Amino acid sequence: MDMKDKLVSSFLAFEESVNVDAPIHNIRSQAIKIFEEKGFPSKKEEAWKYTSLKSILKHDYSVFPKEENALDFKEVKKYFLHDIDTYKIVFVDGRYSSYLSATTHDKMDVCLMSSALNYDKYRPVIDNYFNKIAKPDGITSLNTAFSREGAYIYIPKNKLADKPIQIIHFSTGKESAQMLQPRNLIVVEENSQVQIIERHQSLTKNPVLTNSVTEIFADKRAIVDYYKIQNDRQSASLIDNTFIEQQAQSTVSVHTFAFGGNLTRNNLNFYQKGEYVNSILNGVTIIEGKQHVDHNTLVHHIEPNCESHQDYKGIFDEKATGVFNGKVVVNKEAQKTNAFQSNNNILLDDSATINSKPQLEIFADDVKCSHGCTIGQLDESALFYLRSRGIGQKEARALLMYAFANNVLESVRIPELKARITKLIANKLGVNLGFDL
Amino acid sequence: MAYTEDDLKKELETKEYEYGFYTDIESDTFPIGLNEDIVRAISAKKNEPQWMTDWRLEAFRIWQEMEEPEWANVNYKKPDFQNISYYSAPNKKPKYNSIDEVDPELLATFEKLGISLEEQKKLAGVAVDIVMDSVSVATTFKDTLAEKGIIFCSISEAIQEHPELVKKYLGTVVPQKDNFYAALNSAVFSDGSFCYIPKGVRCPMELSTYFRINQAGTGQFERTLVIAEEGSYVSYLEGCTAPMRDENQLHAAVVELIALDNAEIKYSTVQNWYPGNAKGQGGVFNFVTKRGLCETNAKISWTQVETGSAVTWKYPSCVLKGDNAVGEFYSIAVTNNFQQADTGTKMVHLGKNTKSTIISKGISAGRSQNSYRGLVQISSRAENARNFSQCDSLLMGNECGAHTFPYIEAKNKSARIEHEATTSKIGEDQIFYCNQRGIDTEKAIALIVNGFSKEVLNKLPMEFAVEAQKLLEISLEGSVG
């Protein structure tokens, strides 16, 4: 039985196991129908031209999370950003771990999707926002059909979230292969502000497939910073679908740091529904081995006077494959749009591959849109300069690569997180450098 | 009153196709529809050898299995392939030695286009192989070329007289199964040009053909084959206009270029098929497959000015097979009213130290859609491959669209690839700057559009520049100075 049939046939059992009322039930039933019809995407689809899910779908993933598996905080401490105080929403094998988490209901909600779906007091928010912008494609619908758990964050008007929020998904590997489908909803109301860090981490070599969907709503003048840290083991694959709707004058920035994992696909979609909106998409990808990272972005400019900035840097070694598929659509009404997109790549090995497809679709005339894409190598003369000053080959290369990725790092607004990522990069490049010298 | 962009827009919208007329020459037209018998009949009509007939039939069988591609960013009513006549030839076909013997009606047609043979003959020594409804009726300067050993004739003539060359190269760059339209063309191509430049010869003049569609309801299937032997050079020009027609006409040409070691081919096109009227009715469907193969140190340069056709689907490409090969693509695509263009190039780098340059300029006005679609592919063997691409779009009015779909695939670490694209409109400050210096708005727009396309216009051979300017005027009257 292939994965699709298995999922479709598990759906009924899943529905019975969760206690939900009619509206959510309808959304789920509809979603499973869409998945049944569309299935997993194939390479024949333009958006999946360079990424095949075949290799990761061959495992026989267990679909239902087992009962709670406990983890000792000491074991997993290193995966937390622990040097500052944060709210934490932690899941172990898809189940909420109250022991590792620190949630709040104090003037804002930082809690669980399962509670939000089950309790009446969250009903208005769920009715207004749940599954409202998620694209009804096969893979997102699959998540919707099985949506049960995830993070639920609601920041009311004029509220500044006092500390960053960490969302961490652990998989213990107690199953031979596991599929996780977290579903997050983030609603930030007028004039409010929040910082969120998301991470997926598997703890053993058993294969894990995560198909995550996050919906983010930023109301007028809201500011949202979202950091995705993708540094999982090489046995874990991730399909991350993020949908963002922005109202007037809001600013949402999403940073994606893709260092680990077997196959990673990021579907990042921005819909600008108000004027003077700013959308920022940044990414650093550093991979090697047989890793595959695919960034698929969409910025849809619907209203006039908006901006978008995309900056994706990639460094690819050994047999790694990088894909960048960035699309900017400017509607006829969206005059005075400024849209910038840049994708720079460094290839370190002849077996590494980069496929880049930056697209512009423009229907308005008074716009400034540009995209740039480069593929190149480390500058030999810069390397020579560093080496002539007594810096070793490896360190010199690492320094240059760090510099290459630096302007994305600079935009990280949590200093501790920035330090952590810098360290990750140093590890990734196999050097022991304090770049903050 | 000052001339504003709105006025320009209005003018563009109301500007009708000037060169629409219909010459009445008795034609020998086949019944509509397509089957193996028609393919055999076309081949028989042209008195082709058996291998050619077989080649066509093979292509036809492949075509039957294929589906019409839908990935391009264009919308149109698909042509009914069983409702087209696949062969039409002017039936007076004497061999002329001098221009006086040519049917005066034909000559008048070309005079209307401003490209009369007399003028052409005088003008810089351009040899013209006229293709009118697919069959070549006049060839000039053949003698001069023959002295150098250059073969420049219609492809049907080449099949008769130089079968070994045709057999060796036909379908090597664009195989029958390449795509839907290439397969169709391979099965039913009626005529086209053939050009062979021997080793070490530099072709002393620009070779050119003019294409026209003349018979109502006749699809045109041109086949062009240009072979440049080692160390040779040729510059080839191709231009076309078509009469005004209400029903859609299909044009599916195939052009194959072969540049052997150290050879250089320059291929320039001015395309001005009938684009349909201001309401988007009629117009030519232009589905063309053009590809060149570069061996070691060879260079192929495509230059195109695309102003016509209701729907254009065209990607002149270079396969840089040999080491140090160079591919270039310079394009201006102008769309107006309801025109749709999906055009660009493919640069496939296989050899070491291969270089390619892509400069594409799109200008959209009215309600047209203009897309650039390009592929730059660096294979893992292509050490030190280099590519530079630049795609700029200019939008006039808020009902048109400009789109960019570049595909970049690199598999070699020494590859250096740069891609840049911009989209903008003519800035008010740019016009203001010109106004301030005493240049009126009309002239300012002309200046800016001209400057915008200059990089590409400059690449056209001198002999063609006049024609190109003339054809551009139809699409953007008042904006090209």
From TrEMBL, chain A:
InterPro entries: Fe-S_cluster_assembly_SufBD (IPR055346), SUF_FeS_clus_asmbl_SufBD_core (IPR000825), SUF_FeS_clus_asmbl_SufBD_sf (IPR037284), SUF_FeS_clus_asmbl_SufD (IPR011542), SufBD_N (IPR045595). Residues 175-404 form the SUF system FeS cluster assembly SufBD core domain. Transmembrane segments: none annotated. One of its GO terms (biological process) is iron-sulfur cluster assembly. It holds the Pfam family SufBD_N. Residues 22-167 form the SUF system FeS cluster assembly SufBD N-terminal domain. It comes from the Bacteria. PANTHER family: PROTEIN ABCI7, CHLOROPLASTIC. Belongs to the iron-sulfur cluster assembly SufBD family. This is Iron-regulated ABC transporter permease protein SufD.
UniProtKB/TrEMBL annotation, chain B:
Residues 211-452 form the SUF system FeS cluster assembly SufBD core domain. Residues 130-203 form the SUF system FeS cluster assembly SufBD N-terminal domain. It holds the Pfam family SufBD_N. InterPro entries: Fe-S_cluster_assembly_SufBD, SUF_FeS_clus_asmbl_SufB, SUF_FeS_clus_asmbl_SufBD_core, SUF_FeS_clus_asmbl_SufBD_sf, SufBD_N. One of its GO terms (biological process) is iron-sulfur cluster assembly. Belongs to the iron-sulfur cluster assembly SufBD family. This is Iron-regulated ABC transporter membrane component SufB.
